[in-house]
Amino acid sequence: MTTVAAYAVPAPKAPLERTTIERRPVGEFDVLIDIKFAGICHSDIHQAREGWGEAMFPMVPGHEIAGVVTEVGPGVTKYAVGDRVGVGCMVDSCRECDNCKTGQEQYCTGGGMVGTYNALDKNGEPTYGGYARAIVVDENYVVRIPDGLSLDVAAPLLCAGITTYSPLKHWNAGPGKKVAVLGMGGLGHMAVKIAHALGAEVTVLSQSLRKKDDGLKLGADHYYATSDPKTFEELAGSFDLILSTVSAPLDFGAFLSLLKTDGALVNVGAPEEPISLNLFSVINNRKTLAGSMIGGIAETQEMLDFCAAHGFGAEIELIAAEEINEAYERVLNSDVRYRFVIDTATI
């Protein structure tokens, strides 16, 4: 076992504090990663505060991990010491169900994927995430970070990047398609960049026009305020795809009205509260209300290569570990442009 420094949530809703955790010995197919940077995802806050239900404590959050391999097991073939790598939202799955075999490990039906934190591994031990100095992960759940991406801006791609890339690809965002991104935050800003790079016509739908200049710089063609009722009149029936990145309850009927016939409203943000829906909102014009969760390992690698090829990572604010609790409050107040990233050397 290896003892490493980390930041943990000792109990539900408690502030994070510095501590130490034990990492398992490097097994035959494992890699030991010296974590350089870890992104702060809104999911970390939901789970640390039990917004999505009962969780396991102490909790070390973090599933946007970028670092360097420092040790490999004797059976490892994919990575070598010195490689630049990343770890996202999962560190294992059953590997035998149809979804795992087709590269959709995130939808594992053989017991579910093993989360990078707030989960139990196959030995029944709790997993601890990336707010730490090092992590041990099976090579099959590690991805390579291309040389064209610096590790700090690459870290958020391991969740925010793949969470938006996967549905944009699945619902065929590209030339000739009108795509709306609902929310201009950690997920939304990546959705704008990726949809633009895929060739779609991109519109941002945000509560206000406060971030309009940023949205246009990142690749949006249009920017509208959802607080203005005229937006829903002007844009009725406009979009092939709306990607909702917000984690607050919405008037889904209003946003479904913005879709064309056969359009889809896809949710990647997960509100803590149940939603209500008049089914005529989807029955009329054969619309789809759907969801999507991260992506498989192969698709995550594809996303990283795509971002590197197009020359972009996330827009980040780099912080020291002692600023994590403040960063959580700022995320809740939408006061970040657009992803906090922890310099783990400060842990």
UniProtKB/TrEMBL annotation:
SUPFAM superfamilies attached to this UniProt entry: GroES-like (SSF50129), NAD(P)-binding Rossmann-fold domains (SSF51735)
Pfam families (alphabetical): ADH_N (PF08240), ADH_zinc_N (PF00107)
Keywords: Metal-binding, Oxidoreductase, Zinc
Entries under PROSITE patterns matching the protein: ADH_ZINC
Boundaries of every Enoyl reductase (ER) domain copy: 14-342
Superkingdom per UniProt: Bacteria
Cofactor(s), names only, from the UniProt record: Zn(2+)
UniProt xrefs under PANTHER family: ALDEHYDE REDUCTASE (PTHR42683)
Protein name: alcohol dehydrogenase (NADP(+))
Organism: Streptomyces longwoodensis
